[in-house]
Amino acid sequence: MRRNMMKLVKVTSCLLLVSVTVSAATDEQCLGFDPQPNLVNYLDASLNYETADSICCHNHRYAEYRGYLAAPEVDLFGRLNPDEETIFYDSVCGIPLFIAPRGRTFEEFKKESLKHGWPSFRPEELVSENVIIHNDGRMESKCLTHLGHNLPEGGIDRYCIDLVCIAGAPLSFDDEIVKVMMDYVIITADELNATNYTSSAEKFSGKTSNERPLVITIFVIASFIIASMTFCFVKNNCDKSKNTHTDLPTIA
Questions:
Q1: Distances (CA, A) of 5 to 70, 189, 232, 240
Q2: Per-residue pLDDT tens for 68-100?
Q3: Please, which residues have CB within 8 angstroms of residue 160's CB and are 6 or more apart in sequence?
Q4: What is the pLDDT of residues 107-166, one digit of tens each?
Q5: Is the pTM value of this prediction over 0.70?
Q6: Exposure winner among 158, 171, 175, 250, fewest CB in 10 A?
Q7: Long-range contacts, stretch 98-102, CB < 8 angstroms, 24+ apart
Q8: Is the bond preceding residue 101 a cis peptide, omega within 30 degrees?
Q9: Helices of type H across 43-105
């Protein structure tokens, strides 16, 4: 019985490990291209190219560190013009991804982003033709650049995005990667009319990570099974003890 319990513990541990493992993508990230070299000087800031390459083109799960946008060498909101919208472009293929702030003030955009530690966008700010939101909340551009995750708040989608992946410059039809992407349904930088553009993104898509509830469910089930096995083990030992007990002779 004890040996069976140990096997059960090992199996449930494996289940928990598997449940939090993110499967690798079958398509090549960033379509095999590298991030734009000039992203390191985005808005005259100093971004780390290795971080951009790792996060945007060789990753589906991890992010730049929290608060990176406010680091002294970055200072995103100190470099944006608070009196106008900013178009954020893909760091690899240069397609427009977000137009912000839109539907809120610059201070609201800034406050929410600094609160969470990453640039945070809302549905009306998304260039919806150029971004894919997967069912698990993972977000990437149409050129398969990892962007971040959808983490709804207040019943509305909130896109938590890595700055290094949206620090690109607009590319034109003449650029090689844009030519490669012409088979995709996208809006290029040349085609975007930001003033008249309206996003078709849903306010609440329902696309967000189910990883945590799954882990909790498996953990609860595993705990119940282990507790049941422990009870049976103890009860079985008690029964054996009763069956092997020998009465002492009565002393007259």
A1: 50, 60, 10, 18
A2: 999 999 999 999 999 999 999 999 999 999 999
A3: 63, 116, 118, 119, 120, 148, 149, 150, 151
A4: 999 999 999 999 999 999 999 999 999 999 999 999 999 999 999 999 999 999 999 999
A5: yes
A6: 250
A7: 98/125, 98/126, 98/127, 98/159, 98/161, 98/166, 99/125, 99/127, 99/194, 99/197, 100/125, 101/125
A8: yes
A9: 49-57, 76-79
